[in-house]
Design goal:
4 helices, elongated, 126 residues, mainly alpha
Length: 126
């Protein structure tokens, strides 16, 4: 017996629509170059129409609809984020800079200590 909660995905039509969308975009770009002797607005219109039709066909496909749903859900999630105030952001930035300076001083002193131990004590170089 089949599980009713399992969704069967038939992506062949979605793939064909995406292929058509890519072909429309490529046709728009090719039209832009083929119409090189025409005025700029004709070339631009050919490019725009190819791109616009390609986007529309891509958004009508199943993967395109999934992408639009994902984008809407992502936007809803971003609106739920509690962003820091300007003061909090400034304080955290200052804390990060202070930590970077402390780490830089620590790494510099560790490097100089290792250099002194190796060259002065171990090798006897002055």
């Amino acid at each position: 017996m089949a599980n009713p909660n399992v969704e069967t995905v038939g992506a062949s039509s979605g793939k064909w629509l995406l292929a058509v969308a890519v072909l429309l975009v490529v046709a728009g770009v090719i039209g832009f170059y083929v119409l090189a002797q025409q005025p700029a607005y004709v070339r631009g219109a050919a490019l725009f129409v190819g791109l616009a039709l390609g986007v529309v066909v891509a958004l009508v496909s199943a993967p395109g609809k999934d992408f639009v749903g994902f984008a809407k859900e992502s936007y809803r999630e971003v609106r739920k984020v509690v962003w820091p105030t300007r003061k909090e952001a400034g304080q955290m930035t200052g804390l990060v800079f202070a930590f970077v300076v402390v780490m830089a001083l620590f790494l510099w002193s560790a490097d100089k200590l290792i250099e002194w131990v190796i060259f002065s004590l171990v090798l006897g170089w002055k």
